[in-house]
Write a structure and sequence with these properties.
single chain, 228 residues, mainly alpha, Glycerol uptake facilitator protein, 2 domains, 8 helices
């Protein structure tokens, strides 16, 4: 009876080693794939270029939101203007930084393993700095006008929270499926429709949620509006 027990123990030990080895191999493959997507920069300018792109892109987007909120020529077109500006900036910054322009999107890409967490944190800093800069530029430009950040009457905070959560989720889902998916966006043949899809989500969400929450879907834009 001791021999079968010893054989079973040896078999369990071997299976455990094989399982542990396969887990190590899968982790190594994931790290290698992430390194291949984001190779180390070759120069200082190349290292800072993605963060500068995120700062400038978020600044332009937040500045557009501020202009639409404080001096709308025609409020009916505000959501379209913001969505189209997002689309343009995604095409402009996508080849450099991936075109996140939104801390929520960067968080989502970090959670899916598409971005290293060190890059995610750097993008957060750049995006929030872009939002602060946009708010600081709009303040003297449109003074004494001020934008209000919060639910639109007669809706309460819980309704605004729910709407913001739904459309921020839709925005992040579109980014992940159009940009992070290797099937929809292969490295050797990247698609050209991702910015269109993401921009139209912003347009649809803007028209749908602007009367409930103001339609931010972006913590950097919320920060800019709070400054305003």
């Amino acid at each position: 009876s001791r021999q079968p027990r010893a054989a079973m123990a040896d078999e369990r030990l071997r299976s455990g080693r094989l399982m542990y080895g396969s887990m190590e191999a899968s982790e190594a493959n994931a790290e290698a794939a992430l390194t291949q997507r984001h190779p180390p920069p070759k120069s200082l300018a190349q290292a800072f270029a993605p963060y500068l792109a995120e700062l400038v892109g978020t600044f332009v987007l937040a500045f557009t939101v501020g202009c639409c909120a404080l001096a709308p020529a025609n409020p009916k077109w505000s959501a379209a203007a913001i969505g189209f500006m997002l689309m343009v900036m995604l095409y402009a910054t996508g080849p450099v930084s991936g075109g996140n322009l939104n801390p929520a999107v960067s968080l989502c890409l970090g959670m899916t393993g598409s971005l290293p967490w060190t890059v995610v944190v750097g993008y957060w800093v750049a995006q929030l700095a872009g939002g602060v800069a946009a708010g600081g530029c709009c303040c003297p430009l449109f003074a004494p006008r001020a934008a209000s950040l919060g639910p639109v009457a007669p809706f309460a905070w819980e309704y605004a929270f729910f709407v913001e959560m739904i459309y921020t989720f839709m925005l992040c889902l579109t980014v992940v499926n159009c940009c992070a998916s290797r099937r929809n966006n292969p490295k050797n043949d990247p698609n050209q429709f991702a910015a269109l899809a993401i921009g139209f989500v912003a347009v649809a969400g803007g028209y749908t949620a602007s009367g409930v929450s103001g339609a931010s879907f972006n913590p950097a834009i919320s920060l800019a509006l709070d400054i305003l």
